[in-house]
Design brief:
The protein has 96 residues and is α+β, with helices and mostly antiparallel strands. The chain is 56% helix and 12% strand.
């Protein structure tokens, strides 16, 4: 699993833009997918995984984020994860 430290600032910016209402959930997912596709050029079955905070089980993919933001049950939780990732500066981004 490769830690994508260089992508963290870009992803934090995207999360911040989403949380502030500057972009919607569709734009957030599209921009995250663009990053993933750049990384996938040679590895078609790998994906970006997010660890929002220390202790996070590291199972959140871009697909999960998009799905959770459309789901009334998970919407609040995934937003709180994004907020915590920004405020704690503990976001970790992996490509696996």
């Amino acid at each position: 699993m490769k830690n994508l430290i260089l992508y963290k600032p870009v992803i934090i910016t995207l999360f911040s833009q989403y949380l502030s209402g500057a972009i919607d959930n569709v734009k957030l997912v599209v921009e995250l997918v663009k990053i993933e596709l750049q990384l996938r050029s040679n590895s078609t079955n790998k994906c970006i995984l997010f660890r929002f905070y220390n202790g996070d089980p590291l199972v959140t993919s871009i697909w999960n984020i998009g799905s959770d933001l459309r789901n009334a049950t998970n919407y609040k939780y995934i937003r709180e994860c994004m907020e915590l990732a920004i405020s704690s500066n503990e976001l970790q981004v992996y490509f696996n």
